[in-house]
Amino acid sequence: MKWKPVILALGAMLAMAPELTQAQERPGSLMVYEVVQGDTVYYDILAESRIIGRRKRSGKKEWRRYYRLIYNFNKVYPYALVCRDLIAQADSTIAADVTRRSERNEYINAVERELLRSFEKDIRQMTISQGVLLLRLIDRECGKTGYDIIKEYESGFAAGFWQLIAKLFDQNLKSHYDPEGIDIETEELIYIWESGQWDGLYRSVFGVDPPETVVAKTRLETEVQHR
Question: Who contacts 223 (Cβ-Cβ below 8 Å, separation ≥6)?
Fold first, then answer.
């Protein structure tokens, strides 16, 4: 079942009433009111909300897969958000400070060394399913597949090599994030996370508060070395 955002437009209800005039806002109050034919009518506009349909899961295997997705998402989504910011920082630095190709290559290599020092241990401790989920989330946040990132910052040969390795694990680095297809459940989890309901969902599944994923590095320290 597909889902879509539902906007609760109370303004449409007001449009059915007689024409409203002299709108006033009472100082210190939380709601706006109108005086309509001698009656005081209070109204407000609610924030966008979404309705997520209940999915049918055939048996314990499907539920276990879903619970594993929740567990993995809690662990890797913070890394995807940090990766988005780091890639944006690197792109901005290259656009603003790099004037020669040699400087670009040197900067990218230095960034790679910095990222390896900061994240290699964490990534090596991830399972294959967590690594695959992380790549798909990075594509969502950055608009670049794992293949695109490798090809852009390294070379087509390196991207092809890692694509071959991914295929050995029945994965595809060129596959884009699909919020209405294969990644629909992940997209629902992102909405729950962003709406502030994540702790409640995790607690309802595992009976404990979600463990916090602490990402040590959120900014690049590497700078362009001009010669």
Answer: 93, 97, 107
